[in-house]
Amino acid sequence: MDGFDLFRKLGVGTKFDFKRFKSDANVLNLLPAASVSKSATKKARLDADNEQQESDNEVQEAPDVNHGTEKHTEEGDLTVLQGLKKKGEKQRTKKSKQSFAQMKQEKINHIRNKNRIHCFGQDPPNPCTSFEQLAATYGLNPQIIKNIASIGYTQPTPIQIQAIPAMMDRREILACAPTGSGKTAAFLLPIMHHLKEHKKKGYRALILAPTRELAKQIYREFLRLSEGVGLKAHYISKSTTEKRLEKKYDVLVSTPNRLVYMLQEDPPLINLSQVEWLVIDESDKLFEDGKTGFRDQLAKVYQACNSNNVKRAMFSATFAVEVEEWCKLNLDNVLQVYIGAKNSATTTIEQELKFVGTESGKLLAVRDIIAKGVQPPVLIFVQSKERARELFHELIYDGMNVDVIHSDQTQEQRDNAVKNFRSGKTWILICTELMGRGMDFIGVNLVINYDFPNSAISYIHRIGRTGRAGRSGRAITFFTESDSMYLRSIARVMVNAGCPVPNYMLDMKRPNKKIRRAAKRVPKRDRISTVSQYDIDKLNKKRKYISKDKGKSNKRAKLKRGAEKS
Ligand SMILES: Nc1ncnc2c1ncn2[C@@H]1O[C@H](COP(=O)(O)OP(=O)(O)OP(=O)(O)O)[C@@H](O)[C@H]1O
């Protein structure tokens, strides 16, 4: 066994620093030969450089390479070594860069998979998994980071992880994430970052929401997150009509209706030409046509936001194909961010369907649920303001701590209803679709769909008032035979969220187009009353008869008086 063989045996699994132990290598005849093949040279070079990432085999192979027959001078060998080193260094840098990029991408993919983040669009920015990382990467104001911490947000939610970096990069986005998953902060934080400080330029960001209550809630969240930053936000209430207010604020939160009214005044009461960010919350709702939607109003607002550099962001818990198509056509290099499956309910909600037979069965069922004990606050959804009033009268008569909110009330009444429910003064709030979207009442434990929702989308939003921000919640949906044709779509939402549903509901035939269209209209239902519909009809008939009779006797009396006068 010669010196080389001995070296080979002992050197298995070790790395040899040729530079440091050059004289030893020389003695053992281990220095590389100039005539070795290209690949062999590369291996030798990598070993010589004591590269950490090299495999043991390669190290083992190195002496073979050096086992040349040619004799060299020490200087010549050194030159070769240096040349090899330079070449190898480049390759190594390239290789390590590649493997670093690959590792980084794997990490990013892992973060996205773990948080069920799906991105569509060119070059999605890297997700940021902590608020500190946002500060480090984008220079988010430390005061905002402080505010986030004092509110109690310890880490970003999945939509915040991906949508905040996107908006920080000034990307136009379409974002869909489940109810209660923190979409509001996802768009407010980047806006605050871009606007930086108060400027007397007029509104630089506009946020639209379908209801005044939601607009006010977003405004309040903005105040909380931007405290001490100096930015000024304004929420348009009915009384705001003064143009001079404009320069005082940086951010405007409004409903489309109110804004369009102000834009259409002559001269317009508001100027939106400075708007840099336009955020549409509940975008699928605002894109709806007709009486319940805001599509026309939205078009007018777009026209008014006529700055060249306006960026748009759409957020909602539910997805509509029309919105996606519009965004693809009209937004610049749009990035679509979806969390989880599209149009799915939050998985922290325990969902239940309850067959109640008839309309009167609903009243019995709701009384029964409450009598068995519920943990307030509780929200009860009905399909119309008339029914909200009717149910309210029934439950208040039972002595329950209940209130009602609907669009026929004054703004003050509505504000009080929300305030009392938020503060815990009211335990049960009866509401219409008005409260269905976006409202964030902390800790709603139970949502009762007294009237069956007329779409899966409406269902997802209604039940999404509970189980927010990772909390658990419960939703009970009453149904009668007349609701059976819409059962299938709700049952599917439930199954997708992991809730048990009887098979027959899933096997039901999909209603045809005509029925689906009809389903969009509010179905006619019997009055909500302890007195049966039969008795109500009988009572109404009797009332009619009495009033007719009264009319007759009044006529007779008049004639009698006339006769007496003459
Ligand atoms: N990072 C966070 N950590 C903890 N809680 C958060 C975080 N971000 C937001 N929240 C809280 O989560 C709740 C829901 O947030 P938000 O109202 O923005 O939900 P949303 O996704 O807009 O829901 P919806 O679709 O119903 O409008 C709020 O109470 C909010 O304060």
From TrEMBL:
Residues 133-161 form the DEAD-box RNA helicase Q domain. It catalyses: ATP + H2O = ADP + phosphate + H(+). Pfam families: DEAD, Helicase_C. The keyword Nucleotide-binding applies. Residues 84-97 have a biased composition (Basic residues). Its EC number is 3.6.4.13. It is found in: Nucleus, Nucleolus. A motif (Q motif) lies at residues 133-161. The keyword Repeat does not apply. Residues 37-103, 543-566 are annotated as: Disordered. Residues 164-337 form the Helicase ATP-binding domain. Keywords: ATP-binding, Helicase, Hydrolase, Nucleotide-binding, Nucleus, RNA-binding. It is an enzyme of class 3 (hydrolase). InterPro entries: DDX52/Rok1_DEADc (IPR044764), DEAD/DEAH_box_helicase_dom (IPR011545), DEAD_box_RNA_helicase (IPR050079), Helicase_ATP-bd (IPR014001), Helicase_C-like (IPR001650), P-loop_NTPase (IPR027417), RNA_helicase_DEAD_Q_motif (IPR014014). Residues 49-61 have a biased composition (Acidic residues). CDD domains: DEADc_DDX52, SF2_C_DEAD. Residues 348-509 form the Helicase C-terminal domain. Belongs to the DEAD box helicase family. DDX52/ROK1 subfamily. This is Probable ATP-dependent RNA helicase DDX52. It comes from Magallana gigas (Pacific oyster).
